[in-house]
Amino acid sequence: MAEFETFKLQLSPVLQAPGQWQVTLTESPVAALHGDKGMTQARVLRQDLQRLRNHDGWPNINALRDIGTRVWDSVMTPKAEAAYQTAKLNAAAANKGLRIIVTAVGDEPLQAGSDRVRLVELPLEVMFDASTNEFLAPDIRTPISRSLHWSQDREVVKIALPLRILLVTAEPTDQPPVNATQEVAQIQAALAGLTGATGAIELDLCEHATKASLGDALRDKRYHVVHFITHGKYDQAGNDASPRAYVCLEDAATHETDAIDADTLAMRFASTGVLLAVFTACQSSAPTPGYQLQEPFPVRAFDGVAQRLLAGSTTEITAVIAMQFDFEANVAATFSRHFYSALVKAETTLDEAVTLARREIAVAMGAGHRAWVTPTVYWRCQRGKVFEFEPTRRTLSAAVQKELDLIDNTIRMDRRKIDEIAAQPAAIHPYLEQMRLDAQHEIDDCTARRSLLLGDTLRLLGGTAAAGQEIACSLRLRLKTRTVVGAVKLVVKLPPDGCVSFAGVAAGADAGGELPATVVVGGALPRVTAHIDLAPLAREAGEYEVGVLRFNIAAGVQRPMLDLEVPEATVVRDGAKTAIEALAAILFVAL
User: Fold this and answer.
1) What is the structure's pLDDT at 375?
2) Chosen CATH of 455-590 out of 1.10.443.10, 3.40.1190.20, 2.60.40.680, 2.60.40.10
3) Which has the closest alpha carbon to 135: 66, 219, 181?
């Protein structure tokens, strides 16, 4: 589907009433429905979880429906169910889907003698709505994903094509085969039309991966996606007596298992620029071991591999696709082929891509097979997307592309720092002001360096203003060679919540005199289309102010940064209308 509304439920254990969970609706298309939706308790039993972990006895549609109904009853209190049905109707009326995000908040002790699962163990993906006789997760109208205790706080990252994917395979000799060759071949086949010298995707392979070779691969090139094809385990790792989540790499000497646990993996990903991690490894999102321990296991919400990679600011990863149960090798190949086929389409969201892959598994294996329940989506990115694609820049050298990646990474880190400062109590803002200004100046410097590296660009400069004030943004045209330049046209996409409005446009200081500037406001989204007629002069290499666009920041804005995107830009060069690289503006709000 093209668009989705969000239905976000927060579940948290009630410490004063062991076994009870508080259900809160935090986001939906109908704001009046938000708030407390009552308390519930787990209806899912340990034997249900063990049934899903077992390869044998599938497909069994009745067993899957029974477990799915118990999951539904564990989450949907009567008030939550009523809110869900209302939200679904509202989304359908707007021709939109309704994405369901379930957030688990807090730790929960295992009750002695209890046969019920704990909050973080709930297999949400099998949720079954008996009123419509439908599973939610394989239905493109109702994709299911998970979060932890955050809001969706990571911005969508704009990346220049090619999308760089690293496939990491490991088949330790002391583990059953994972059939990595088949899965790699399926991914390569799915992306065959997009790879190659002029393709939109670079696909690299790190075979028989060791800790050292994985580290070398992540240092040599900055990847956007890393995909692990190996075994996942939940067992004792090293000298830690408590079971730990890990994935299996290979020992360089023996080729047997060399475990890399969730915390160590998070350290490996630090400062690498990786945005999305995919694991077709078994149990890579399992929060607890797949076997019964002698003593109660002290589960925490962040104990799984997927959860740990999103649990802090160590990595830049904004989403993880991982498996909560064992995943058959042939099913992993089917999942990967359809997931990547969907992911590379610009309009597809991450949960939508996973849902489409689930559906294909269900068709291949049978609707009653537990295999389609296994994939999970954990994320904290906004608008359902980890990244958006900018036009391909195949003329850039590897060295320039690497420098651009470093610049983009610096900008992301500085933006995160500014957001974190804004979230602090107002009383300590004065003590953090210099840190905020330093981050802002570094963003400005990085944007200028980016323009220099790219050559011909049209850059909309931002600035700082208080809420309720007007801000003037200079429009700069940078040329790397002598060129006759005429009219400039650009489209500016404003934030959709109305916090920024257009105030006016005029020719810039270097436009060649007082020349007309026209503007069209409106469209399907909040957009401004500006046409600036320049004197058709031969201009030397350099930077020119060709226009000034003014915007109003609405009173009451609380966000420290507002983005003005420039999705389209053209310049008449030597008499011909040509597209040009456009750099967006960031408006810093003085809070």
Assistant:
1) 93
2) 2.60.40.680
3) 66
